Amino acid sequence: MRRAPRRLRPSIIRPVASVRGGAEAADSFWLDRASRASLLGNVRAVRRLLGLLLLTVPAMAVQGVLLCFRGSGKVRFARLYWALVCWVLGMRVRVIGAPASRVAGRPVLFVSNHSSWLDIPVLGGVLPACFVSKSEVGRWPLIGTVARLGRTVFISRRAGPMAREIEAMRAVVSRGDNLILFPEGTNSDGSRVMSFRASFFALAAGEAPPIVQPVSVVYDRLAFLPANRATRPLFAWYGDMDIASHYWRLARYRGLRASVLLHQPVDPREQPNRKALSREVWRIVADGAATLRQNRPAVPIGLAQQRPGGPAPAEQRAAPA
Fold first, then answer.
1. Is the full-model pTM beyond 0.85?
2. Long-range interactions of 301-305: CB distance < 8 A, separation 24+
3. Shortest CA distance to 55 belongs to which of 148, 151, 121?
Protein backbone atom coordinates (compact mmCIF):
# COMPACT_ATOMS: atom_id res chain seq x y z
CA MET A 1 0.00 0.00 0.00
CA ARG A 2 1.47 3.32 -1.10
CA ARG A 3 2.00 5.97 1.54
CA ALA A 4 0.43 9.33 0.96
CA PRO A 5 2.97 12.06 0.24
CA ARG A 6 3.92 14.18 3.21
CA ARG A 7 2.50 17.64 3.25
CA LEU A 8 4.99 20.46 3.26
CA ARG A 9 5.26 22.34 6.47
CA PRO A 10 3.37 25.61 6.33
CA SER A 11 6.42 27.49 7.66
CA ILE A 12 8.47 26.59 4.56
CA ILE A 13 6.00 28.04 2.09
CA ARG A 14 5.98 31.81 2.50
CA PRO A 15 4.16 34.32 0.39
CA VAL A 16 6.33 36.51 -1.81
CA ALA A 17 4.92 39.56 -0.11
CA SER A 18 6.09 38.21 3.23
CA VAL A 19 9.66 37.72 1.95
CA ARG A 20 9.71 41.20 0.49
CA GLY A 21 8.34 42.60 3.69
CA GLY A 22 11.11 40.93 5.69
CA ALA A 23 13.80 42.33 3.39
CA GLU A 24 12.30 45.78 3.58
CA ALA A 25 12.18 45.54 7.36
CA ALA A 26 15.85 44.53 7.46
CA ASP A 27 16.80 47.41 5.15
CA SER A 28 14.81 49.79 7.29
CA PHE A 29 16.59 48.53 10.42
CA TRP A 30 20.07 49.14 8.99
CA LEU A 31 19.05 52.50 7.54
CA ASP A 32 17.69 53.58 10.90
CA ARG A 33 20.87 52.40 12.59
CA ALA A 34 23.06 54.27 10.10
CA SER A 35 20.91 57.35 10.54
CA ARG A 36 21.27 57.22 14.32
CA ALA A 37 25.05 56.74 14.00
CA SER A 38 25.24 59.72 11.63
CA LEU A 39 23.18 61.83 14.01
CA LEU A 40 25.40 60.89 16.96
CA GLY A 41 28.47 61.69 14.87
CA ASN A 42 27.14 65.14 14.04
CA VAL A 43 26.34 65.80 17.70
CA ARG A 44 29.86 64.65 18.63
CA ALA A 45 31.46 67.00 16.09
CA VAL A 46 29.42 69.98 17.34
CA ARG A 47 30.20 69.17 20.96
CA ARG A 48 33.92 68.98 20.21
CA LEU A 49 33.86 72.27 18.31
CA LEU A 50 32.19 74.02 21.24
CA GLY A 51 34.73 72.44 23.58
CA LEU A 52 37.60 73.78 21.47
CA LEU A 53 36.15 77.29 21.54
CA LEU A 54 35.60 77.19 25.30
CA LEU A 55 39.18 75.97 25.76
CA THR A 56 40.89 78.29 23.29
CA VAL A 57 39.44 81.69 24.21
CA PRO A 58 40.65 81.73 27.85
CA ALA A 59 43.88 79.95 26.86
CA MET A 60 44.71 82.82 24.50
CA ALA A 61 44.40 85.29 27.36
CA VAL A 62 46.59 83.20 29.67
CA GLN A 63 49.28 82.68 27.03
CA GLY A 64 49.25 86.38 26.20
CA VAL A 65 50.11 87.16 29.81
CA LEU A 66 52.78 84.45 30.03
CA LEU A 67 54.55 85.85 26.96
CA CYS A 68 55.27 88.99 28.96
CA PHE A 69 57.44 87.07 31.41
CA ARG A 70 60.69 85.15 31.13
CA GLY A 71 60.95 81.48 31.94
CA SER A 72 59.43 78.25 30.69
CA GLY A 73 55.86 78.99 31.77
CA LYS A 74 54.71 79.84 28.24
CA VAL A 75 56.27 76.64 26.87
CA ARG A 76 54.67 74.43 29.50
CA PHE A 77 51.29 76.08 29.09
CA ALA A 78 51.45 75.63 25.31
CA ARG A 79 52.06 71.90 25.78
CA LEU A 80 49.14 71.69 28.20
CA TYR A 81 46.88 73.53 25.77
CA TRP A 82 47.71 71.26 22.83
CA ALA A 83 47.31 68.15 24.98
CA LEU A 84 43.84 69.37 25.99
CA VAL A 85 43.00 70.01 22.33
CA CYS A 86 43.79 66.35 21.59
CA TRP A 87 41.63 65.30 24.53
CA VAL A 88 38.68 67.38 23.31
CA LEU A 89 39.06 65.89 19.81
CA GLY A 90 39.07 62.38 21.24
CA MET A 91 42.61 61.83 19.98
CA ARG A 92 44.75 59.51 22.06
CA VAL A 93 48.49 60.09 21.58
CA ARG A 94 50.91 57.18 21.95
CA VAL A 95 54.53 58.25 22.44
CA ILE A 96 57.42 55.87 21.71
CA GLY A 97 60.82 57.13 22.81
CA ALA A 98 61.64 60.40 24.57
CA PRO A 99 62.24 63.99 23.46
CA ALA A 100 65.92 64.87 23.12
CA SER A 101 67.52 67.11 25.71
CA ARG A 102 69.81 70.05 25.11
CA VAL A 103 73.50 69.25 24.84
CA ALA A 104 75.88 71.96 26.05
CA GLY A 105 73.16 74.57 25.67
CA ARG A 106 72.35 73.56 22.08
CA PRO A 107 68.58 73.55 21.40
CA VAL A 108 66.77 70.72 19.63
CA LEU A 109 65.40 70.79 16.09
CA PHE A 110 62.58 68.24 15.89
CA VAL A 111 62.14 67.12 12.26
CA SER A 112 58.87 65.36 11.42
CA ASN A 113 56.75 64.17 8.52
CA HIS A 114 53.56 66.17 7.91
CA SER A 115 50.17 64.89 6.72
CA SER A 116 47.51 66.84 8.61
CA TRP A 117 46.69 69.92 10.69
CA LEU A 118 46.34 67.36 13.50
CA ASP A 119 50.15 67.19 13.59
CA ILE A 120 50.13 70.56 15.38
CA PRO A 121 48.15 69.55 18.50
CA VAL A 122 49.65 66.04 18.53
CA LEU A 123 53.28 67.21 18.48
CA GLY A 124 52.56 70.39 20.41
CA GLY A 125 51.34 68.35 23.36
CA VAL A 126 54.47 66.15 23.35
CA LEU A 127 57.40 68.40 22.43
CA PRO A 128 58.56 71.58 24.25
CA ALA A 129 59.10 73.60 21.09
CA CYS A 130 57.82 76.28 18.70
CA PHE A 131 56.47 75.42 15.26
CA VAL A 132 57.65 76.47 11.83
CA SER A 133 54.52 76.89 9.68
CA LYS A 134 53.50 78.23 6.29
CA SER A 135 52.63 81.91 6.20
CA GLU A 136 48.98 81.30 5.21
CA VAL A 137 48.30 79.88 8.67
CA GLY A 138 49.05 83.25 10.22
CA ARG A 139 46.14 84.77 8.26
CA TRP A 140 43.54 82.23 9.36
CA PRO A 141 40.89 83.51 11.81
CA LEU A 142 41.51 82.42 15.40
CA ILE A 143 43.99 79.71 14.34
CA GLY A 144 46.48 82.36 13.22
CA THR A 145 46.18 84.13 16.56
CA VAL A 146 46.74 80.87 18.43
CA ALA A 147 49.79 80.16 16.26
CA ARG A 148 51.30 83.58 16.96
CA LEU A 149 50.72 83.20 20.69
CA GLY A 150 52.58 79.91 20.41
CA ARG A 151 55.53 81.85 18.92
CA THR A 152 55.22 80.09 15.56
CA VAL A 153 57.76 81.07 12.90
CA PHE A 154 55.94 81.70 9.60
CA ILE A 155 57.68 80.99 6.32
CA SER A 156 56.58 81.26 2.68
CA ARG A 157 58.34 78.06 1.49
CA ARG A 158 59.45 79.95 -1.64
CA ALA A 159 63.06 79.96 -2.76
CA GLY A 160 63.38 83.76 -2.83
CA PRO A 161 62.84 84.73 0.82
CA MET A 162 64.15 81.43 2.21
CA ALA A 163 67.48 82.92 3.33
CA ARG A 164 65.70 85.61 5.32
CA GLU A 165 63.36 83.06 6.88
CA ILE A 166 66.26 80.81 7.84
CA GLU A 167 67.70 83.77 9.72
CA ALA A 168 64.37 84.21 11.52
CA MET A 169 64.54 80.58 12.61
CA ARG A 170 68.15 81.06 13.71
CA ALA A 171 67.00 83.93 15.92
CA VAL A 172 64.50 81.62 17.63
CA VAL A 173 67.16 78.96 18.17
CA SER A 174 69.73 81.50 19.37
CA ARG A 175 67.46 82.54 22.24
CA GLY A 176 67.37 78.91 23.38
CA ASP A 177 64.01 77.75 21.99
CA ASN A 178 63.49 74.37 20.34
CA LEU A 179 61.83 74.20 16.91
CA ILE A 180 59.49 71.71 15.20
CA LEU A 181 60.16 71.58 11.46
CA PHE A 182 58.23 69.91 8.61
CA PRO A 183 60.81 69.81 5.79
CA GLU A 184 58.62 68.02 3.22
CA GLY A 185 57.54 71.50 2.17
CA THR A 186 53.85 70.52 2.02
CA ASN A 187 51.30 68.07 3.40
CA SER A 188 50.94 64.55 2.02
CA ASP A 189 48.17 61.96 2.01
CA GLY A 190 49.91 60.02 4.78
CA SER A 191 50.74 56.99 2.63
CA ARG A 192 54.43 57.88 2.38
CA VAL A 193 57.00 60.42 3.52
CA MET A 194 57.99 62.77 0.72
CA SER A 195 61.51 64.04 0.14
CA PHE A 196 62.92 66.54 2.62
CA ARG A 197 64.08 69.89 1.28
CA ALA A 198 67.76 70.28 2.12
CA SER A 199 67.41 74.07 2.30
CA PHE A 200 65.58 73.76 5.62
CA PHE A 201 68.64 72.08 7.13
CA ALA A 202 70.74 75.21 6.64
CA LEU A 203 69.50 75.98 10.14
CA ALA A 204 71.56 73.04 11.44
CA ALA A 205 74.89 74.55 10.40
CA GLY A 206 77.68 76.38 12.18
CA GLU A 207 80.04 75.56 15.00
CA ALA A 208 77.31 74.79 17.55
CA PRO A 209 74.24 73.74 15.54
CA PRO A 210 71.07 72.49 17.22
CA ILE A 211 70.67 68.80 17.90
CA VAL A 212 68.37 67.18 15.32
CA GLN A 213 65.81 64.60 16.44
CA PRO A 214 63.85 62.77 13.71
CA VAL A 215 60.16 62.21 14.52
CA SER A 216 57.67 59.89 12.78
CA VAL A 217 53.94 60.60 13.15
CA VAL A 218 51.27 58.15 11.96
CA TYR A 219 47.54 58.05 12.66
CA ASP A 220 46.88 54.38 13.28
CA ARG A 221 43.48 54.05 14.99
CA LEU A 222 40.02 55.05 13.77
CA ALA A 223 36.85 54.01 15.60
CA PHE A 224 39.13 51.96 17.91
CA LEU A 225 40.26 49.81 14.95
CA PRO A 226 43.67 49.74 13.23
CA ALA A 227 43.79 52.23 10.37
CA ASN A 228 44.50 50.88 6.88
CA ARG A 229 44.86 52.19 3.34
CA ALA A 230 41.12 52.78 3.09
CA THR A 231 40.66 54.65 6.38
CA ARG A 232 44.00 56.43 6.90
CA PRO A 233 43.27 59.14 4.26
CA LEU A 234 40.50 60.39 6.56
CA PHE A 235 43.24 61.88 8.75
CA ALA A 236 45.19 63.45 5.89
CA TRP A 237 44.70 67.12 5.04
CA TYR A 238 46.42 68.14 1.84
CA GLY A 239 45.96 69.71 -1.57
CA ASP A 240 42.93 72.00 -1.86
CA MET A 241 41.08 70.59 1.16
CA ASP A 242 39.54 73.19 3.45
CA ILE A 243 40.02 72.71 7.15
CA ALA A 244 36.32 73.12 8.04
CA SER A 245 35.04 70.19 5.97
CA HIS A 246 38.01 68.05 6.98
CA TYR A 247 37.33 68.73 10.66
CA TRP A 248 33.64 67.89 10.26
CA ARG A 249 34.38 64.61 8.51
CA LEU A 250 36.91 63.47 11.11
CA ALA A 251 35.43 64.85 14.34
CA ARG A 252 32.37 62.62 13.94
CA TYR A 253 34.46 59.55 14.81
CA ARG A 254 35.47 58.10 18.14
CA GLY A 255 38.54 56.06 18.98
CA LEU A 256 41.22 58.14 17.23
CA ARG A 257 44.90 57.55 17.91
CA ALA A 258 48.19 59.04 16.79
CA SER A 259 51.54 57.34 17.31
CA VAL A 260 54.61 59.56 17.75
CA LEU A 261 57.95 57.79 17.33
CA LEU A 262 60.86 59.83 18.71
CA HIS A 263 64.09 58.54 17.18
CA GLN A 264 67.64 58.82 18.44
CA PRO A 265 69.10 62.34 18.10
CA VAL A 266 71.48 63.20 15.27
CA ASP A 267 74.43 65.57 15.61
CA PRO A 268 74.64 67.62 12.38
CA ARG A 269 78.42 67.91 12.79
CA GLU A 270 78.70 64.19 12.04
CA GLN A 271 77.32 64.72 8.51
CA PRO A 272 79.47 66.15 5.68
CA ASN A 273 76.84 68.64 4.47
CA ARG A 274 73.18 69.56 4.78
CA LYS A 275 72.12 67.35 1.85
CA ALA A 276 73.62 64.31 3.54
CA LEU A 277 71.93 65.35 6.79
CA SER A 278 68.54 65.74 5.11
CA ARG A 279 68.84 62.32 3.43
CA GLU A 280 69.81 60.58 6.66
CA VAL A 281 67.06 62.22 8.70
CA TRP A 282 64.52 61.50 5.95
CA ARG A 283 65.57 57.84 5.93
CA ILE A 284 64.97 57.53 9.66
CA VAL A 285 61.60 59.32 9.58
CA ALA A 286 60.37 57.37 6.55
CA ASP A 287 61.53 54.07 8.02
CA GLY A 288 59.75 54.69 11.31
CA ALA A 289 56.56 55.85 9.60
CA ALA A 290 56.49 52.73 7.42
CA THR A 291 56.76 50.51 10.50
CA LEU A 292 53.92 52.37 12.23
CA ARG A 293 51.67 52.21 9.16
CA GLN A 294 52.12 48.44 9.07
CA ASN A 295 50.98 48.26 12.72
CA ARG A 296 54.27 46.59 13.66
CA PRO A 297 56.16 47.08 16.93
CA ALA A 298 58.25 50.23 16.55
CA VAL A 299 61.45 51.31 18.26
CA PRO A 300 63.48 54.52 17.89
CA ILE A 301 65.96 54.35 15.00
CA GLY A 302 69.51 55.68 14.99
CA LEU A 303 72.07 56.52 12.32
CA ALA A 304 72.76 53.77 9.77
CA GLN A 305 70.31 51.48 11.58
CA GLN A 306 68.18 49.22 9.42
CA ARG A 307 64.55 48.47 10.07
CA PRO A 308 64.26 45.27 12.14
CA GLY A 309 62.49 42.33 10.58
CA GLY A 310 62.96 43.01 6.89
CA PRO A 311 64.38 45.13 4.08
CA ALA A 312 63.94 48.87 3.84
CA PRO A 313 60.57 50.08 2.54
CA ALA A 314 60.16 51.33 -1.02
CA GLU A 315 60.02 54.96 0.11
CA GLN A 316 63.42 54.50 1.79
CA ARG A 317 64.98 53.06 -1.34
CA ALA A 318 63.78 56.06 -3.34
CA ALA A 319 65.92 58.46 -1.33
CA PRO A 320 65.76 62.13 -2.29
CA ALA A 321 68.55 63.65 -4.32
1. no
2. 301/214, 301/263, 301/264, 302/263, 302/264, 303/264, 303/266, 303/270
3. 121
